[in-house]
Design brief:
Blueprint lengths: L1 H8 L1 H19 L12 H6 L9 H9 L8 H14 L3 H30 L11 H14 L5 H5 L4 H26 L5 H17 L6 H10 L10 H7 L1 H20 L11 H20 L8 E2 L6 H19 L4 H14 L11 E3 L9 H7 L1
Antiparallel strand pairs: 1-2
Helix pairs in contact: 2-6, 2-7, 4-5, 5-6, 6-7, 6-9, 7-17, 9-10, 10-13, 11-16, 14-15, 16-17
Length: 376
């Protein structure tokens, strides 16, 4: 029994399941290949963006110094320039890149689920049904990869930044978990894996600044399921994350400066502090609802002013949900999944409101990973 159990929980099995999940995701999302350019921002990123039509030193200087479209995201411009070099203005190629990146991300979610479930100890409960484990990994990948909330991030070319930052965030998480496993067992790459995680984090920031919360997520994983956050260890673990925190602080500062220069951040006159709490709670409620019942997805959900009564009701429901999770704090897996969800959503909530959107499906790309694993 032990031999067969090791056979279905080994690294090769997780790699095979990751490949199957990626192929299924590729098949489902391939429908995007027949789509064209979207009139919302695709002109700004691709069709009217003359900068991406050359691949030379001047373009690289532009990509790494510009805040075109309001944000610093040189990897997005580089990937779009490579697409243009191959496909010119044929939307097929741009959609192909998006769905390939998302398929890879789906496979990486399977590998991440494998490591998290094993570290949580829950895998022991599946010993009586060996095939249940690979099925669980496959379900975790597909709950992430083909959930209707992924459509906007995958089928909208402008959302290249979501799938690209997702790729490097997942890479950083996997490298960090390997680093921790190596330090705890005395095997593995140690400093090499830590540096790889740091490099992946930097690349994620260069694709979309929303990944600034990753250091906090790493600390969350230190608590559960890694079990590193013992008494007296918090300071040491924070010092360990200092390189990540420095990169995150620099990216956050640069993003705020760039957004302020373009007047992208909403003022207190438009949305005072109390209103920001209400809109954030309302958005949190909608994100949870759409995870569970993905109907009525709207590509442009604007803030309604003055607030209708539903905003206050849903914000209160979100607060009660948070209180319920706190009350269930003995279920570490539930608290950890909820905090993962909240932390990755934090930069896009109304506390840092830019524009007039209340919420958007693409913002759930990274937050949805832990809920997908827990649901599976």
């Amino acid at each position: 029994m032990n031999g067969s159990w090791r056979a279905v929980t080994g690294s090769r099995v997780s790699l095979h399941v990751a490949g199957v999940a990626a192929l299924i995701c590729l098949a489902v999302t391939s429908r995007a290949l027949v789509c064209g350019f979207c009139p919302s921002d695709d002109y700004l990123y691709v069709t009217d963006n003359g900068a991406i039509r050359t691949l030379d030193g001047r373009f690289l200087a532009w990509a790494f110094t510009t805040t075109h479209a309001g944000w610093w995201m040189p990897l997005v411009w580089l990937s779009l320039a490579l697409d243009y070099h191959v496909w010119q203005l044929n939307p097929f190629g741009y959609h192909l890149t998006n769905i390939l990146l998302h398929a890879v991300n789906t496979g990486l979610v399977v590998l991440l689920a494998d490591r998290l479930i094993k570290r949580s100890g829950m895998v022991d409960r599946m010993m009586s049904r060996p095939l249940l484990y690979p099925a669980t990994l496959l379900l975790a990948g597909l709950l992430f990869g083909i959930h209707p909330l992924r459509v906007e991030a995958v089928a909208w070319i402008t959302s290249r930044k979501d799938v690209l930052s997702g790729l490097f965030c997942l890479g950083a998480l996997l490298c960090y978990l390997r680093f921790v496993a190596g330090t705890q067992t005395g095997t593995g790459g140690g400093r090499r894996d830590f540096l790889l995680a740091l490099c992946c984090f930097l690349l994620a920031l260069m694709a979309k600044p929303v990944s600034v919360v990753l250091p906090l997520v790493l600390l969350l994983l230190d608590w559960y399921p890694l079990g590193r956050l013992q008494r007296g260890m918090f300071g040491r673990l924070v010092r360990e994350k200092l390189p990540f925190l420095v990169l995150a602080g620099g990216a956050a500062g640069a993003t705020i400066v760039a957004a302020s220069a373009r007047n992208l951040l909403q003022t207190a006159e438009f949305l005072p502090l109390g209103g920001r709490f209400i809109v954030s709670g309302y958005a949190m409620f909608e994100y949870v609802r759409l995870l569970l019942v993905p109907v009525g997805i709207n590509p442009l959900q604007q803030i309604e002013l003055p607030f209708p009564g539903s905003y206050g009701v849903k914000a209160a429901a979100a607060l009660l949900l948070c209180a319920g999770v706190v009350a269930a704090r003995k279920k570490s897996w539930l608290v950890a999944a909820w905090l993962w969800f909240v932390l990755f959503l934090l930069p896009v909530l109304a506390f840092f409101q830019n524009g007039d959107q209340a919420y958007a499906a693409r913002y759930t790309y990274l937050p949805s990973i832990a809920p997908a694993v827990v649901a599976a």
